[in-house]
Amino acid sequence: MKTNRPELLAPAGDAERLESALLYGADAVYLGGQLFNMRAATESFDDKTLYDAVKKCHDKGVAVHLVANTLPRNNEVPALPHFFEVAQDAGVDAFIIADIGVMRLAQKYAPNVDIHMSTQTGVVNYETASALYDLGAKRIVMAREVCLDDIAEIRAKTPKELEIECFVHGAMCMSFSGRCMLSNYMTGRDANRGDCAQPCRWKYHLVEEKRPGQYFEITDSKDGTYILNSQDMCMIEHIPELVAAGVDSFKIEGRAKSAYYAAAVTNAYRAAIDEYKRNPSSDFKPSQWIIDEMRKISYRDYCTGFYFNSPNENAHVYYDGIYIREWDIIANVLGTKDGYLEVIQRNRFFKGDELEVLMPGTEPFKISADEMFNEKDEPIDVAPNPMAIIKIKCDKEIMPGAILRKEKE
Hints:
CATH superfamily of the largest domain: Aldolase class I
Number of strands: 22
CATH architecture of the largest domain: Alpha-Beta Barrel
Largest sheet: 8 strands, parallel, barrel
Strand order of the largest sheet: 1-2-3-4-5-6-7-11
Structural class: alpha/beta
Distance between the termini: 44 Å
Low-confidence stretches: none
Radius of gyration: 23 Å
CATH class of the largest domain: Alpha Beta
Oligomer: single chain
Helix content: 10-25%
Mean pLDDT: 89
CATH topology of the largest domain: TIM Barrel
């Protein structure tokens, strides 16, 4: 992997998101099985689809990291040996693990698979990193609370064979390295076993003990505040700093997010990394279109997490609209034939609309839907039905898997 430093590691919550990550430039993907998965709400991969996913990835030269990053209870431990044996037989390249006991079982039942210690392990210093390496870990996923200067020191004081992976984009947990009891306490859904209800994203007021039913504002807003709700991380403008600190793998958060998110964010970071490799200067900045991509997905206000300083003043979201959505995905492209673009519709659009094309490895460009036809080749003025096949007159060759989107008015 180090010959391809930095590696771009993309999320693959299901088969559709996996396809997006592969098409749009991931060097490696991380995904979950149906057990020991910190994203229990995603469809994930059963034994059969895991074999298929690994083969598809390996055919493209893409590594597969399988999560086993929950904190299993006693009654769940007996299922681990079979889980690891199946994964090794399927050919996964690495396990992402948070628990030392789980690590030991992985080494026993899948000795040919690398061990990556999850961000939930909470690695914040070089002694812990070195100890995990001595226990057999090939890679550590840094705690998100560690700054770049500390990562650089960890890099300098650990074996050079130990790889360092860091999150560079996506949602941030309000609790240390994802170790949180809030969901379990409030809803009975255990965040440490993949079933977080995300109560940190809920709206809160303050109630005084002797005044039940009276809700006091925590901020000046009459609507209350999302006092625990963190901003999203975005490090796409800071690739030189990450590389200088010794980060081997850039990890995008988002296994529970959409296939469009996987495509757009992977494509942007792929383009940014490739630009950096062509011009690896300390003052490198990606092209403006790459930076603009970060606001063409659903996102919360961005910050740089703990990488440069404590985010205590600028990393929380207090506004009422948790997600910002400025663009809509309109359709997925099936292909181009005889001067017509054939697409599967996702959202309504109209004749004459200007649409933007997101295609792997290229700057997005515009087309106009001046002539549209339904499946019966009848001219239409509006595409109103999701999943309908639509033809658009188009003189450009647009590859299957490309995405059409439209800015909200």
